[in-house]
């Protein structure tokens, strides 16, 4: 009885301590074997012969004394033999071995250090594994988390006490002692001396330099060994934030672009039968990146336009039908839906769906892309008006100038340029806006929206062919209605492609009609529907003209003289990739202030063709009574560009000469009036 009680007392006073049982030893051996065989589950196992060879290379030579250590320690072998075993001990036993002071040797690779930190500190095995003997700082946010970029110069300031100060407590049982050398056993760290304060001017200059260097610092990667490379930042040449202002902080050209607009495409995926495809934007953006123009501009990531913004030019039903997905389309009033010209999608021959055979629809991506195209154009226009940027180019799709208040057509769903003009009118009180549409197709949607508005001057230069070219609208006699009469100008080319029109005809129209009217209108902001389908390379159904990119650059440069340079271009049509890339590059260079390319001397010396002269005469007849400046411009409108410039120069010289003669004549008349009394007095004789 006493023996039993003594036995129970002994058991209670001295509880059994769990020893290294067979299963736990088996765990340790298996884990150690895995660590020795391969460092990653994706790597192959070493063959036995190679493993023996590596093991023999880690051992000291047989002829050396046993007490003599090897001259060079091999990290793969020595570190694993003496450090991994205590680090990966059995979870059922206290980590007594961790009490030994652990020193990180400089020969350890970063992978080995991270493995040690994983076991000891409970840290995740994340971050980029770099080869070599670079030191590892587990507290750096630039390695393991998504923080703002830090200039490389500041990384060296993180010394060892700062690193030790952020080590987290070890995951251990309460019965195990603290490791020797643990920060908690060393006491509080002595306060570091504060660096001397620099003068405010020097500190401000230093801050500006650091901000400028942030964009050039290396972007870290955040991934595990077996995961693919994932950039935390944006691709090369792409600005990660909404905008990036140059160090000088002076207003510059803004670019609106987002890859989300590339997803709008027909489900058939055939770009041959659908010319308005994502490759248009990809090609233009790649060209601007390659030429370094993106780096010189402010990048704007477009947002999706709000429903209220869409409804400034479109009906509520139209905005909900084409601006939302099928999940939100139940909000559309079915009674109002029947009032739309096109109230249902159609099945296309390619297998996709669309509003018509040209305007394809993708249930998942079309609505977001269309709203993003509007949002980017609106933001560029607003920021140009407020002076945040000097001018801008919206590289957006789908286009918009064919979209009418209640109808989507011609690849267009929402009229981006028209909505931008309405937002400027209503929210920013802009009084006069010029919309110039140089797309080869008439902007029927823009004309309809502003047909009676005298505050918006709409000028369109397009192929018309007496109404036989898409969309069939835009005749020279369509000048507006009500208070808007005279504020709608159409240069409607006719005569087909006999011959195809080029720079000579476009320069004649711009010099003789467009620029004089725009100068007389004196706009506050200029918005350009920049379609490049009048360039060479387009098939006859898509244009067939031969206008050069330099001509678009010239017109842009001339219009920058008006509205204090506040001008925004928005991409419309253009389907030949080479031509639209050349044209977009030329326009962006001009917006940045570069010298425009030279137009061909042959085109400068060529007079407009007979069909173009007839079209220009019709415009003069329709608009002469509304714009007084056209009377003087009509004198040289039918000449070549070179002859017109020469004639204007001669006229200026004549006017200058006449003014000089007039001044001399006035001087001669003024001089006798002063001297004649004296002469009369001196020569007169007294009466007899």
Offer a few descriptive terms.
688 residues, alpha/beta, Arginase, Chain A, eight-stranded parallel β-sheet, three-stranded antiparallel β-sheet, 23 helices, 7% strand, globular, disordered C terminus
CATH class of the domain at 253-643: Alpha Beta
User: Main β-sheet: number of strands, strand sense, barrel status?
Assistant: 8 strands, parallel
The CATH topology of the domain at 253-643 corresponds to Arginase, Chain A
What value does the Rg take, in angstroms?
39 Å
Count of discrete alpha- or pi-helical segments spanning 4 or more residues: 23
Q: In terms of per-residue confidence, which ranges show pLDDT below 50 for 5 or more consecutive residues?
A: 62-106, 126-167, 169-174, 215-247, 671-688
Strand order of the main beta sheet, please?
2-1-6-11-10-7-8-9
Structural class: alpha/beta
Using the alpha-carbon principal axes, give the shape: globular
Give me the CATH architecture of the domain at 253-643, please. 3-Layer(aba) Sandwich
* CA-CA gap between termini: 181 Å
Percent strand:
5-15%
β-strand number? 11
């Amino acid at each position: 009885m006493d023996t039993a009680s003594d036995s129970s007392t002994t058991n209670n006073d001295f509880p059994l301590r769990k020893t290294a049982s067979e299963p736990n030893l088996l765990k340790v051996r298996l884990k150690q074997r895995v660590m020795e065989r391969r460092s990653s589950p994706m790597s192959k196992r070493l063959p036995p012969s190679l493993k023996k060879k590596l093991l023999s290379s880690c051992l000291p030579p047989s002829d050396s004394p046993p007490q003599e250590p090897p001259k060079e320690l091999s990290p793969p072998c020595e570190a694993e033999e003496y450090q991994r075993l205590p680090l990966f001990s059995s979870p059922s036993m206290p980590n007594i071995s961790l009490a030994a002071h652990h020193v990180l040797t400089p020969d350890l690779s970063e992978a080995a250090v991270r493995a040690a930190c994983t076991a000891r500190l409970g840290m995740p095995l994340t971050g980029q594994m770099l080869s070599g003997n670079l030191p590892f700082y587990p507290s750096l946010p630039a390695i393991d988390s998504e923080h703002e970029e830090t200039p490389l110069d500041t990384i060296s300031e993180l010394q060892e006490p700062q690193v030790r100060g952020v080590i987290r407590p070890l995951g251990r049982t309460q019965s195990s002692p603290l490791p020797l050398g643990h920060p908690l056993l060393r006491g509080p760290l002595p306060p570091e001396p504060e660096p001397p304060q620099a003068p405010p001017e020097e500190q401000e200059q230093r801050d500006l330099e650091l901000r400028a260097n942030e964009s050039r610092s290396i972007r870290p990667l955040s991934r595990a060994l077996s995961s693919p490379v994932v950039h935390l930042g944006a691709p090369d040449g792409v600005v990660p934030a909404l905008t990036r202002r140059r160090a000088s902080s002076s207003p510059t050209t803004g670019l609106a672009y987002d890859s989300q607009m590339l997803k709008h495409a027909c489900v058939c995926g055939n770009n041959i039968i659908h010319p308005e495809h994502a490759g248009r934007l990809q090609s233009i953006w790649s060209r601007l990146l390659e030429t370094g123009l993106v780096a010189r501009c402010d990048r704007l990531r477009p947002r999706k336009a709000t429903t209220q913004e869409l409804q400034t030019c479109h009906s509520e039903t139209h905005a909900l039908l084409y601006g939302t997905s099928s999940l939100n389309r139940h909000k559309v009033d079915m009674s109002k839906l029947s009032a739309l010209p096109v109230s249902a999608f159609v099945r296309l021959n390619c297998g996709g769906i669309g509003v018509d055979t040209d305007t394809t629809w993708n249930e998942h991506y079309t609505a977001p892309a269309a709203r993003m195209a509007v949002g980017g154009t609106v933001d560029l226009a607003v920021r140009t008006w407020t002076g945040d940027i000097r001018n801008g180019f919206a590289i957006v799709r789908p286009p918009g100038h064919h979209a009418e208040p209640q109808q989507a057509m011609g690849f267009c769903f929402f009229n981006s340029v028209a909505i931008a003009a309405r937002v400027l009118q209503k929210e920013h009180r802009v009084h006069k806006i010029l919309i110039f549409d140089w797309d080869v197709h008439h902007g029927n949607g823009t004309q309809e929206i502003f047909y009676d508005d005298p505050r918006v001057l709409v000028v369109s230069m397009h192929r018309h062919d007496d109404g036989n070219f898409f969309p069939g609208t835009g005749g020279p006699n369509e000048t507006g209605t009500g208070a808007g009469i005279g504020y709608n100008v159409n240069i409607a080319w006719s005569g087909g492609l006999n011959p195809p029109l080029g720079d000579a005809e476009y320069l004649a129209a711009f010099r003789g009609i467009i620029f004089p009217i725009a100068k007389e209108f004196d706009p506050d902001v200029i918005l350009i529907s920049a379609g490049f389908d009048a360039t060479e390379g387009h098939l006859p159904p898509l244009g067939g003209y031969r206008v050069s990119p330099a001509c678009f650059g010239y017109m842009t440069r001339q219009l920058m003289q008006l509205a204090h340079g506040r001008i925004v271009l928005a991409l419309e049509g253009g389907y030949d990739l080479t031509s639209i890339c050349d044209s977009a590059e030329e326009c962006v260079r001009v917006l940045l202030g570069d010298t425009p390319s030279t137009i061909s001397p042959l085109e400068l010396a060529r007079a407009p063709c007979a069909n173009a002269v007839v079209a220009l005469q019709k415009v003069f007849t329709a608009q002469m009574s509304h714009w007084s400046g056209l009377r003087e411009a009509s004198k040289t409108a039918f000449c070549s560009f070179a002859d017109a410039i020469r004639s204007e120069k001669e006229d200026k010289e004549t006017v200058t000469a006449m003014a000089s003669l007039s001044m001399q004549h006035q001087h001669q008349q003024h001089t006798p009036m002063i001297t004649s009394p004296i002469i009369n007095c001196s020569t007169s004789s007294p009466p007899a």
